[in-house]
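Hey team,

Filing this mostly as a record. A colleague (T.K.) asked me to run one chain through the structure pipeline before their review meeting, and I want the input and output archived in the tracker in case anyone asks later how it was produced. No errors, nothing strange. Just documentation.

Input sequence:
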Amino acid sequence: MTRARATLRTVAQAAEVSVTTVSRVVNGSKGVSFFTRSRVEQVMRQLQYSHGGNSTEPHLGPLQAIVDDFGDPAVLDVLKGVESVAQASGAGMFVAALQGRAVNPRWLTNMTARQPSSMVLITSRFAVPSYSMVRGLGVPVVVADLSEGGSAHTPAVGASNSATGTLAVHHLLSLGHRRVGFVAAAEDLSAGSARLVGYREALRAAGVPADEELVQLSHHGSDAGLSGGIALLDRPDPPTAIFAAGLRTAIGVFQAAARRGLSVPADLSVVGYDDLAQAWWLSPTLTRIRRPLADMGALAAQTAVRLANGEYADQRVDLPTELLIMDSTAAPFRSVAGG
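Output structure:
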């Protein structure tokens, strides 16, 4: 009896990894651990997998990435992860940007003319009705969700915003701060609101009364950190620390402190959000929450490839975040000095 020819899918099933991981091993791509690569190669030998020009492996169509805002630096980091998987899978990738425009049927029809095998939405402010329009195309869709505002009916990869809010504020409380402010841009309302939940939870768990006067949801766009920071610092009893729920917001809080003649962290500790290149521009260096943005994009793309191959995918996966403690946080000088 002739043995059935091994395919990427049968190798992946036997090795208990994704088809994308097997493709990475076959193509010699990076991003696979030594032990996983060794296991896949062993299974390939056992199954006598052959990867040649006469391969009958089904060819995936291109992966379509839809970006809602190229102005958000986090989007670009996520896109890098998507591209790495698209390249490793051999599917290739197209990118389309909405840039604030509404999704319309003609625009979607033009995209499907490229015959994508799957789609990844890299979104921070994607409107819920747009999800329905994209899902209606009959193409597998996965969301790289930067806001926790994604559709409940679409597989998504993200990072828990409420947990990151708790992580940031717990760090400030551990330093001795008890008046901790919160600043977010109203344009980031979905993510900001979730981080605000974490902010309040950390205060509650520490037995610190929440002062709603220390919460600023600013409608000043890119100047949200500046306007919100000044509003907090001008209070009769200002905070000794501020959690800024976005990187641009944190930059604005630094500017607010400078305008009021305050030094970071001697007079004001600041925690920001996202480990992006702009964070290194600040002096002192910003203590911040790091989301694994490229990993989010890679996992979203891997999930999209699995769906295109008819495999199962989890409805939502939240990757862990971490706190990078740098130079913008310290014990509250004013409380120690009694000022």
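Quick notes for T.K.: The two ends are 87 Å apart (CA to CA). The chain has a mean pLDDT of 82.
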